[in-house]
Amino acid sequence: MPTLKQAIDLHRAGKLPEAERAYRAIVTASPREADAWSLLGVALEGQGKAGEAVAAIRRAVALDPKAPLFRFHLGNAFMASGDAEAAAKELQLAARMQPDLAEAHYNLGNALRAIGNNPAAIAAYRDCLRYMPTLHQARNNLALLISAAGDYDGAFAELQHVLAEDPGNIQARVNLANIADESGRRDMAYQEALKAVKLNPNYPDALFVFGLACIRLGRDKDAIAAYRRLVEIDTGNFAAWDNYAQCLQATGDYAGAEASYKKALAIKPDDPDVNYHIALLDLLLGRLDQGFAGYAWRFKAIKLLKRAAVPAPLWDGSDPAGKTILVADEQGFGDSIMFCRYLPLLRSRGAQVIYACRAPLQSLLQGWDGADRFVALGDAAKTVCDAHASMMDLPHLMGTGPDAMPGRIPYIPVPPGDVPPELAEEKNLRVGIVWAGNKDHKHDHRRSIEFSAFSAICGVEGVRYYNLLRPSDLRGEEAARFRQARYRRSWREDRRFRRYGAVHGGA
User: Fold this and answer.
1) Considering the entire predicted model, what is its pTM?
2) Which of 2, 300, 339, 464 could make an S-S bridge to 428, C-beta 3.0–4.6 Å?
3) Is the pLDDT of residue 503 over 70?
4) Nearest 5°: phi and psi at 373?
């Protein structure tokens, strides 16, 4: 029969099947050999036999409940089996029994992070680093969690600490780039991602964040090259295929984008982001029926986008005659103004329509025949109705394809009030210009254009131009350049235009 030392030597040599047989021989001969039971479990876990590992280590714990290493091993086995809650319980006991066991604090942090208890995970990683300051992965994980809590500067400090001690720590560099991106520091994200790629041009995480940083800066060719390399290295990375497709789409390669989206979908058919992006491509290419059908994925893909909390069921598109249907506002003002054209159509089919929207829209739509009643969006949850729908569900629910899209002109009324005589009496063609949106939008470089793009039409006679941007969306000296170009002065400078600019200049 092998001795425990011989079994441990096999284990340390990486000969796990042989070590397992040796441990089994020992516990068969000596069933109360707690160390052998625990190490048998570790050997089993190392071979992917997590369930058997848990059972073996439990035998060791039953023999010696106060041994911190047994609790530590049991926690690791639970974690390997997918039971993070049980793992956290055992690892917490191990850390209490032996506070200087840094690995117990580290693995406890991982378990707590897995179950979503980030504050406790942060504390566990800090405890780990108190006993083992050079465990860089603990500091990496700590940085990710404190950045998720909004402390970007604290996260940067932790990662810079790692890189000061280990300049070649590529994961720290990748994390630094990711957190810089999350905090809106686009140039920093690009520089850190570039450093990561230089450390290892074939490191998947580095290629991914480098591609993302290039997207943010409009460096589409560099992003495409990065993601092309990434999907060659890691063909099963559905997120890489998805981002690759978005880059191809942005450069007008719609066929390539569609093929890449299908690759991503084949790997993860129910991923919300991929399905949402495919719906957007369908809409872009005029495949409105399937595009609007797939657009329902937006509520799972866009984290901050939620349906109004209405107790009535969602409308399924069935005959609305005789029913009261609440239609809830969503997304930006521009989206609401565009899609509210569907409300009169819903009303014409016999529904009583309640429009739940934000106050500026109620002001704009005074006297409109598209809804029977308006309520504040925040009051939707206490509004009695038979069914409800989100505004941008209506094209799909009402079956209006390209040939049946509501097009009544105008489909919203001219706002009542004190219309400046010079605007009402203007005989020239009146053209409102919006050349930019919210400058803080992460895709602003794809949505907004330079004001100078309008200089070519500056001298067209018989046209009066109006600046419809919100003041917050103006860049630099654009307002002054607008005046110098003899366009209509900004509504911000003339209180009589505020009603119109505030509504029509929305992002």
Assistant:
1) 0.78
2) 464
3) no
4) -155, 150
